[in-house]
Write a sequence for this structure.
């Protein structure tokens, strides 16, 4: 089972991307499970995803990198004994720190036959300047981007070429080693590239 984390700040387009990836990968013959981490009481994102016929587990009650880490590990164990998906896509809350989520899963990797795939962090090209202009938000978003193996510039169809270039430059400045992919779930740009990265990239 290969774990891929789709992270990013609130409103960056994580759920739409997760649904798109789940449908595309499932249609190619792979089994896909999606773990959604909802901090609120009503798991809206999980309900939306489930409508597309994907295996969905809601890890609610808190952030999976701290309060409900045990729930995450229990869910992974259940999947390994049951559905045994080829891919497990994890969508943490928009306030989560990706490396903290990854650290929770690492001890279970050997026991549950898990392979750590890439952490893909979304950066909203239309809002990146605003997100990086407020000190508190800038700290969180910067940490998320620094933890990324891949930075997906989301919603590139809705911005100018100049805005896209600025977002890409900002992403490279914060995390020079990450692969940057322009992404639009509306036009389909970048989706196949993200899927290729999911299949090929393995994180030690």
């Amino acid at each position: 089972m290969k774990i891929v984390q789709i992270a990013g700040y609130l409103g960056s387009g994580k759920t739409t991307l997760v649904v798109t990836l789940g449908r595309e990968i499932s249609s190619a013959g792979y089994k896909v499970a999606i773990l959604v981490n909802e901090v609120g009481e009503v798991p809206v994102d999980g309900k939306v995803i489930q409508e597309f016929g994907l295996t969905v587990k809601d890890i609610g009650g808190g952030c999976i990198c701290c309060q409900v880490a045990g729930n995450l590990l229990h869910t992974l164990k259940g999947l390994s004994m049951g559905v045994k998906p080829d891919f497990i896509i994890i969508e943490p809350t928009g306030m989560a720190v990706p490396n903290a989520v990854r650290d929770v899963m690492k001890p279970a990797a050997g026991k549950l036959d898990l392979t750590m795939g890439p952490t893909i962090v979304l950066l909203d090209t239309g809002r990146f300047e605003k997100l990086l202009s407020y000190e508190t938000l800038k700290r969180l978003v910067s940490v998320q981007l620094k933890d990324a193996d891949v930075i997906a510039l989301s919603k590139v169809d809705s911005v100018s070429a100049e805005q896209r270039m600025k977002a890409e430059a900002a992403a490279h400045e914060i995390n020079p080693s990450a692969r940057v992919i322009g992404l639009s779930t509306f036009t389909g740009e970048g989706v196949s590239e993200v899927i290729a990265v999911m299949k090929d990239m393995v994180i030690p």
Remarks:
- The chain has one domain: 2-200.
- Residues 2-200 form a domain with the Rossmann fold fold (CATH 3.40.50.300).
